[in-house]
From TrEMBL:
Gene3D superfamilies, sorted: alpha/beta hydrolase (3.40.50.1820)
Molecular function GO terms recorded: hydrolase activity
InterPro entries linked: AB_hydrolase_1, AB_hydrolase_fold, AB_hydrolase_sf, Epox_hydrolase-like
Coiled coil: none
Keyword terms of this UniProt record: Hydrolase
Listed name of the protein: Alpha/beta hydrolase
Domain AB hydrolase-1 as annotated: residue spans: 54-298
Presence of the UniProt keyword Chaperone in the record: no
């Protein structure tokens, strides 16, 4: 994940079994220690393991450190490498921040975590919103990021949709309608989602997010419900709307981006945009895959990210 070959490549990756592993909160399986780190934004919970060439895994919206466990299963926990999995403020076990979370907050939190763990630099892999935050970290703290892996990254299309929601009804209808619905329902949205889960209709609601929602292990949808935070989703969309993606042109580390062809929150056109901003980016499209590529196609994601390191 820290290769030096920067030739732009786009490919379609063959995938294996769909969503072959459950989501689990068994930190002991990967010898992870749990630490709470105080940051300027608030306390954050970090699952980590010492080792060479550490990898920082960043979850997205409706995620936490546990969302990465199918990917860890696919990579045998990345072998002997160090691991850092952060629950960003308000997500997972980390308390909600006192003010709306911003991309700058995300970068400050990550720098504080790396400082607390004594890590000068890491390979960063981010999913969805985590990819956005990872890109920003590479902009503002470039020496801390050896390489970037963007998994189902919500990047340029999401930024445009957040700025111009009516236009986005054509380009990103699922994202736009979800955001509008959350603005209407507000804090009641989480309770509504839990109620839908109890009635057995959750697969119908979650179907746009996953390519094959009924083939998912029950743990995946349970984590999706548990980690969905409406106010934080809205804050993340607001932060994306105000962000100048041209700042990503300053990123100099190797970047690899992979997403699903059936993703309703990230588009394959995002990869074209990223190549214009980051000419050396490697990219791949996973067939038969939705927005949670590291859960739906963890073997293919791992194979692609590993290949870019060769």
């Amino acid at each position: 994940m820290d290769g030096t070959d920067t030739a732009p490549v786009r490919q379609t990756v063959a995938t294996r079994a769909y969503a072959p592993w459950p989501v689990t909160d068994d930190a002991g399986r990967w010898s992870l220690t749990v630490t709470t780190v105080a940051t300027a934004v608030g306390r954050v919970v970090v699952h980590h393991r010492a080792g060479p060439d550490p990898v920082l895994l960043l979850h997205g919206v409706a995620g936490s450190w546990t969302t990465w466990t199918p990917f860890l299963a696919a990579t045998d926990g990345l072998g002997a490498r160090g691991l850092v999995l952060v629950d960003l403020p308000g997500w997972g076990s980390s308390p909600a921040p006192g003010t709306p979370f911003t991309v700058d907050d995300g970068a400050r939190v990550l720098v504080a975590v790396l400082d607390a763990l004594g890590l000068p630099s890491v390979d960063v892999v981010g999913h969805s919103m985590g990819a956005f935050v990872g890109l920003h970290l590479a902009v503002v703290a470039p020496r801390r990021v050896r390489s970037l892996g963007l998994v189902s990254g919500t990047t340029t299309a999401t930024a445009r949709a957040s700025r111009h929601p009516w236009r986005a009804l054509r380009t990103l209808p699922a994202f736009t309608l979800l955001r509008a619905g959350l603005l209407v329902t507000g804090s009641a949205a989480h309770g509504l989602l839990r109620g839908i889960a109890r009635t057995g209709l959750l697969p119908l609601v979650a179907a746009p997010v996953f390519a094959h929602v009924r083939r998912l292990d029950r743990s995946v949808l349970a984590a999706f419900v548990d980690e969905f935070r409406p106010a934080l989703f809205t804050a993340a969309a607001r932060a994306a709307a105000g962000y100048d993606v041209d700042r990503w042109r300053s990123v100099r580390c190797p970047v690899a981006a992979v997403l699903g062809r059936d993703d309703v929150f990230a588009r394959t056109s995002d990869l074209d945009d990223l190549r214009r901003l980051l000419p050396g980016v490697r990219s791949a499209v996973l067939d038969d895959c939705g927005h949670f590529a590291h859960v739906e196609r963890p073997v293919a994601v791992a194979a692609f990210l590993t290949a870019t390191a060769d």
